[in-house]
Amino acid sequence: MTPETRSPRADRIFVALDTPGVAAARQLAGRLAGSVGGLKLGLEFFVACGPDGIRAVTEDAGLPLFLDLKFHDIPNTVAGAVRSAVPLRPAFLTVHASGGRAMLRAAADAAAEEAERLGVPRPKLLAVTVLTSLGADDLAAVGQAGPVEDQVARLAELTAEAGIDGAVCSPAEVAPLRRRLPPGFTLMVPGIRPAWAAAGDQKRVMTPAEAVAAGADHLVIGRPITAAADPVEAARRIGAELG
Ligand SMILES: O=c1ccn([C@@H]2O[C@H](COP(=O)(O)O)[C@@H](O)[C@H]2O)c(=O)[nH]1
User: Fold this and answer.
1) Ligand 1 close to Cβ of residue 166 (< 6 A)
2) Is 3 inside a domain boundary?
3) What is the pTM of this model?
4) Which residue, of 113, 120, 139, 169, has the greatest Cβ tally within 10 A?
5) Who's near 135: CB < 8 A, 6+ residues apart?
6) pLDDT band for position 3 (50/70/90)?
7) Does 69 appear as a known binding residue?
8) 189 CB within 6 A, ligand 1
9) What is the spatial distance between Cα 46 and Cα 111, in angstroms, rounded to a whole number?
10) 119 alpha carbon to ligand 1 midpoint, in Å?
11) In a domain, 178, yes or no
């Protein structure tokens, strides 16, 4: 399958390449390039391989990069981290919504200013709301008021007010968020599990087709593809399920 023949809905899939090795990530990216719409590189890869590793994986892939580093610190530090990430040309970059309004604003301003200074495209900033590995009990244990859906909505609304482009949420919150947030607000959605895949540590999950029907813009899918015996076949199967 080539980018020209893959289903338009498969373009929504960002495959999470959670590996500490450049060679493994490059190999998977090359094999999956015709079956997914983008690559997600996150903490495991970045801590092991750094910015050079990111460049090595993305330079030949010809796919948009979702750089999922989930920045969470004081505003000045997060602004600096965002500025350092801009030259890697991510299409999407994450911060934690719970870092608060000033941190979110600092991140948004830094992305816009640094992209303009370098003459490169501005990354879309996404704020992680409540991690998809957390359930109601986990939220209560860290002192956050539930239900989960309400906490996600509070954080997503704060995010939108602070000038951030979108949020990361579970598929279960997509439909309610669509009713509350402005049109064009991006929803990037992990916690995706085809009926044939194990949930693992993910608690708030739906199938790819259910997430898209609810209104997800992009699906983040890792292990159901990357841990499959045949990752390309798994990605195509998910693409076929999306129609
Ligand atoms: O709330 C969140 C935020 C980010 N993620 C990331 O998405 C992928 C999911 O991988 P699977 O193997 O499909 O579970 C992973 O890289 C997480 O860091 C998330 O799962 N939930």
Assistant:
1) no
2) no
3) 0.96
4) 169
5) 148, 203, 204
6) low
7) yes
8) no
9) 19
10) 31
11) yes
CATH number at residue 112: 3.20.20.70
Closest among 210, 233, 234 to 224, alpha carbons compared: 234
Determine whether the shortest distance from the Cβ of 128 to ligand 1 is under 6 A.
yes
Q: What is the 117 CA–ligand 1 centroid distance (Å)?
A: 32
The residue written with tokens 């947030």 in the block is 181
Instruction: List residues with catalytic annotation.
Output: 68, 70, 73
Chain centroid offset of residue 192 CA = 12
The residue among 77, 179, 92 whose CA lies nearest residue 128 is 92
Q: Whose CA is nearest to atom 18 of ligand 1?
A: 42
ipTM for this model? 0.99
64 lines ligand 1 (CB under 6 A): no
Is 97 a domain residue?
yes
- Work out whether the CA dihedral 28, 204, 8, 197 comes out positive or negative: positive
Q: Rounded CA gap, 207 and 12, in Å?
A: 14
pLDDT at 243: 82
Query: Atom 2 (ligand 1): residue with closest C-alpha?
Result: 131
The count of structural domains within the chain is 1
Domain that holds residue 162: 8-242
Do 34 and 28 contact (CB within 8 A), yes or no?
no
User: Does ligand 1 lie within 6 Å of residue 42's CB atom?
Assistant: yes
Closest ligand 1 atom to 223 CA: 12
The confidence band for 149, taking pLDDT boundaries of 50, 70 and 90, is very high
